[in-house]
From TrEMBL:
GO terms for molecular function: magnesium ion binding; phosphatase activity. One of its GO terms (cellular component) is cytosol. This is Haloacid dehalogenase. PROSITE patterns: COF_1.
Amino acid sequence: MESHYIFLDVDGTLVTYTNELPESAVRAIKAAQANGHKVFTVTGRSKAEMYKKILDIGFNGYIGGNGSYIESNNNVIAEKKLSAKDTRMIVDWLYENNLEFYLESNAGLFASERFEEEAERPIQLYSAKKGQEQTDHLKVKDVFPDMIFGELPYRDDINKISFILNSYEDYLKAKHLFSEFKVGTWGGAGETALFGDIALNNIDKRTAITELLDYLGESEKNTIAFGDAAVDIPMLEVCGTGIAMGNGSREIKEMADHVTDDVANDGLYNAFRHLKLI
């Protein structure tokens, strides 16, 4: 059996959007590793969001911040951060425009004063869009259990800043003002988006996988990527085989080599079996 490099998105792929980790996914990963395959997470999450139950699986490496941070066997390969000056500039603009936000770093998620209150409804809507049931009871702490409130937001270790969109115009303003950065949206397509985010430009999951493979001296030939959203499409494109989750968006299902079951219905395990990784 040839050894493969397996790259897994986290939210909607490894875990549900309410952070539920299927036991079958853990079994699949451990069995694949026992068969000689290497498994990496590739996620928008900072390392502070990689909670113990996820890390305890025991991955061979981690790509976070949608490509801004790369680890292999606990060795840091790359870490690309916003400067303290740029972070302050962005945070000040968010304050001036009454946009609640959180800063993403490996040290933690640092939220603005009213984020917990203002983000509750957008988080509920976001989870409902992703197919979760009974989302009206969700709190911000259910999705971000270790989020930190009340600390000074001017930091030098930030890889991404997410903020609540009061309107689509907020995103358009940010995209115009911060044109040298990568400004995007999430939680919906186009004007239905619930959140905006700002990060360094020219970084995504594709560039990070390529950088990691170059470091390891490997090619894309024996690589497999799993994802559920548009942000995952670049890594499915660069890898030898691309797998979309059954709960994934139409765009990623249309370009994937194979569509497996929903994350909550043993999608990862079934795909590993289909690909003969286990």
